[in-house]
Amino acid sequence: MPRGNPSPKMAITVDADVHRLVLQAAEAKGMSVSAWMTEAARRTLKIEDGLRAVEEFQAIHGAFTEEELAESRRRVAAAIANAPAPTPEARLR
Predict the structure, then answer these.
(1) Whole-model pTM?
(2) Where are the domains of the chain?
């Protein structure tokens, strides 16, 4: 009988190109595929949660102004300019 709190298992199917890139990305980070997929899923869930929060904010306070959107674009561009080199998974976008 397993001790502690074992993680549930999941069987998934992915496209061949995604499979290859996931293996490369996990290896490049020195992670298992399971750990890499868990990290990727957490990141995606966090992004989706943030997008829902933005929708809720705008529902209460109204849509962002053009000035607010322009400032956001500037901040994102600055963050991208200072970001590390893309990883293999970035090629999927």
Answers:
(1) 0.69
(2) 19-81
